[in-house]
Amino acid sequence: MRPRVCLDHAVQIRTAAFTRAGYDGVFKKRPGDKQDGCVILYKNSVFRLIKHKLVEYYKPGVFPLHRDNVGTIVLLQPRDKKVANQKICVANTHLLFNPKRGDVKLAQLGVLFAEIDNIAFRKVTHGDVKYHLVILCGDLNSEPYSPLYKFINRGKLQYDSLTRREVSGQHKGQHLGFLPMPLWKAKMGVTDTCQYVNIVDERRGKKEKTRIRNSKTENLKMIRITRLWKRKMAGRKSRHQNRSVVLVTP
Question: What angle do CA 113, 224, 56 make, to 5 degrees?
Fold first, then answer.
């Protein structure tokens, strides 16, 4: 059976070949002179593209977002009228490889999840936030059952005793220091539940701004993924080392 949705990080996109096969897609190239990036391809006869987001993790002056990795996110609607209301959010990313920089990997995930939270959002009903189905894929440059993997699979991570090397499980050896507390600064604009501050404020309808907890609070030892990731989860270990794929259902 032919695949309906294809995801991978690509050096080149052979547009003509995919078009002839009936596929369309979105591609985010890494900045600078890099030729690789992330692409999501979908079958035109099966899905309609509702919206998409090209994610660039590099944010000038915002530490630790100083690496040029990228991601792509799409919201697809089935063309079959019987299931047309069951939209699907698909995300694909390639995180930083460096085994020593777990802080960068987690910050990149925080941004990706905040973008997914925005794209997959449906509505708020009686205080309960509803989301579309989410599928998360990519090269996460982490070992199965590493803290980074468990963060995605369990929806939370207590990081106050973790070193930068331990996060991805790729490399064991002398540690280069513990993860900072807080893991990221308020300047990043992302809460410890991996949501954009301005988006949360907008949904709450409050004039006052959301506070990102400071390092003195107990909860800052932990980051969480918002309800989108906490309902039903299924994790799959890839046959390829340093690659993990997680399917997430709200």
Answer: 25
Own/partner contacts of 161-164, CB < 8 Å, gap of 24 or more, are 162/102, 163/102, 164/100, 164/101, 164/102, 164/103
Asked if residues 159 and 114 have their Cβ atoms less than 8 Å apart, the reply is: no
Query: Does residue 24 contact residue 41 with C-beta atoms inside 8 Å?
Result: yes
d(CA 175, CA 73): 34
For the entire predicted model, the pTM comes to 0.80
- Phi and psi at residue 52, to the nearest 5°: -150, 165
Per-residue pLDDT of the chain (250 residues; tens, 9 = 90+): 455 666 554 445 456 778 888 999 999 988 888 878 898 999 999 999 999 999 999 999 999 999 999 999 999 999 999 999 999 999 999 999 999 999 999 999 999 999 999 999 988 777 677 899 999 999 999 999 899 999 998 888 888 888 899 999 987 666 668 888 888 888 999 998 899 999 988 887 754 444 444 333 334 455 666 544 344 333 333 333 333 222 222 2
Place of tokens 């697809």: 76
* Range list of β-strands (E), 79-213: 88-94, 121-125, 128-131, 133-139, 156-158
